[in-house]
Amino acid sequence: MNENSRKGIVVRNLNIVMMIIASLLSVYLLFSNYQTTRIYRLSEQITTKYIDCQKDAADMQAASDYLTNKVREFSINGNISCIDDFFNEIESTRRRDNAIADLERYFSGTRANESLQNALAASNKLLEQEYHSIVLSIEGRGYDIKDFPEVLQNISLSEEEKALSNEEKILLSQDLVFNESYLKQKQDIYANINNSIDELISVTKNEQIENSSEMLGQLHKQNITIVVLLIIVFFLVVFTNRLILSPLHQAVLNIRSQKKIPIKGSEEMRFLALTYNEMYDEKEKQASELTYEATHDSLTGLYNRKIFESMKEIIDDQQAALILVDVDKFKTINDTYGHAVGDKVLTEVANHLRASFRSIDYVCRIGGDEFAIIMIHAGPELKELISEKMENLNHSLNHPRRSDDIPPVSLSIGIAFTDQNISFDQIYKNADRALYKVKEKGRCGYGFYE
Predict the structure, then answer these.
(1) Is residue 265 pLDDT above 50, yes or no?
(2) Upper half-sphere CA count for residue 321 (Cβ side, 13 Å)
(3) CA-to-CA distance for 293 and 278, rounded, in angstroms?
(4) What is the pLDDT averaged over residues 209-222?
(5) How far from the centroid of its chain's Cα atoms is residue 296's Cα?
């Protein structure tokens, strides 16, 4: 056997070995691609599960708020359709129960499910108070209780409540769904829903991190295989890298950095990116909405009573002015023009207050027609400036533009300045005394606590 023959055999054998190696590596690459697809499907399931469960948590809150709005509306205007809507949500739509059922399917036995269960329990407990309010409103308006659902017929009023006049019953029914106890129970519901969402985010994030680590390890193995097969399967490498590997790698890095995934690559990667980005946007939106709703009044957009109460510790340590504002004869406005106009009046007052104070001041709505302003870094030396603001406020509200479609209104205002020797609660009482004196003098004015 000559030298060329031996070389030919060597080359042929080498080709056979290379073909066998290439075939094995190709099989391995196919298997590796299968593993990557499996991991992607798992990631897709995790993402879809999170979106569904977050929607369930949002539905729970929306249903609770819907019930609150309907019972409050009925206590105010006595519209029977509100009761129909109220019980339709409880018995037919059942968003709260459906949310629990969905979450049980995905997160049974977890803290996310437990928190949502607590939210449902708190909501159901609140129903008892809402039923009581509805019955008082029914009695106060002279409706026949037999025309309403049986659960309401089983609610018994105390002898003390039965002895109230119709108007007093209506007022008591309104107080039951607007008082601090009711609001605190609502806050407990929101807190449990927030805890559920936080737990969903935590669980999903951990699953995504674990899944991403597995995916990244799989990608490293694929890269080694691709290097070995670079010459043999060049076009396959280009195809895989452009449509799968590069987008997957970028997705892993973006997920770890909690950023959006670029919409590129294969159809699967685009779907994954779209799904993940939708989850990301929904999370940001929910967080923003929950934060805003928890700190702002829904009608006027001003800070709510929760923010006002939270300012106590801050105010105790610095000089400030506390201003309490009541809309004069607001009940008469509601009775004369209707609640829609009453809401417009409150919104107009809120807009004037917002425009009259600095951006660093806290303008809050703390009750129905009650407002409070905390002027930061303001002492008695600003009395003249504050007086000018108060006079301008009453003048503007007493002379509304015709296009505003609201009646003239006036404000009674009490003002007190902080003192390191007394608490915020005492400052509040001082401002309230000043407000009371203004009302004694005929309203439509302001007064400083001396």
Answers:
(1) yes
(2) 27
(3) 22
(4) 75
(5) 11
- 407-433: per-residue pLDDT in tens? 899 999 999 998 767 788 888 999 999
Q: Which of 66, 187, 193 is CA-nearest to residue 130?
A: 66
DSSP 8-class letter at 403: G
Q: By C-alpha distance, which of 179, 445, 449 is closest to 325?
A: 445
**Spatial strand order in the sheet of 370-376:** 362-365, 370-376, 320-327, 411-417, 445-448
This prediction has a pTM of 0.40
Element spanning 334, H or E: helix 330-337
Which of 384, 412, 416 is closest to 315 using CA atoms? 416
Domain with CATH 3.30.70.270 in the chain: 305-448
Buried b (16+ CB within 10 A) or exposed e, 132-156: bbbbbbbbbbeeeeeebbeebeebe
Q: How far is Cα 410 from Cα 207, in angstroms, rounded to an integer?
A: 58
Contact status, residue 52 vs residue 106, Cβ threshold 8 Å = yes
CB 197 within 8 A of CB 57: yes
Class of domain 305-448: alpha beta
- Supply the pLDDT for residue 157: 86
Q: What is the tens place of the pLDDT at every residue in 147-169?
A: 888 888 888 888 898 888 989 98
Distances (CA, A) of 388 to 86, 360, 385, 393, 394: 47, 19, 5, 9, 10
The label of the residue with tokens 């309907």 reads 70
First CA to last CA distance, the chain = 122
Q: Which residues are catalytic?
A: 369
Task: Give residue 291's pLDDT.
Answer: 61
Q: What is the pLDDT of residue 129?
A: 85
Give the type of residue at 217.
G
Q: Give the C-alpha separation, 68 to 129, whole Å.
A: 11
Residue with token string 């703390």: 366
* Cα gap 450→445, rounded to integer Å: 16
The residue with tokens 């997160």 is 107
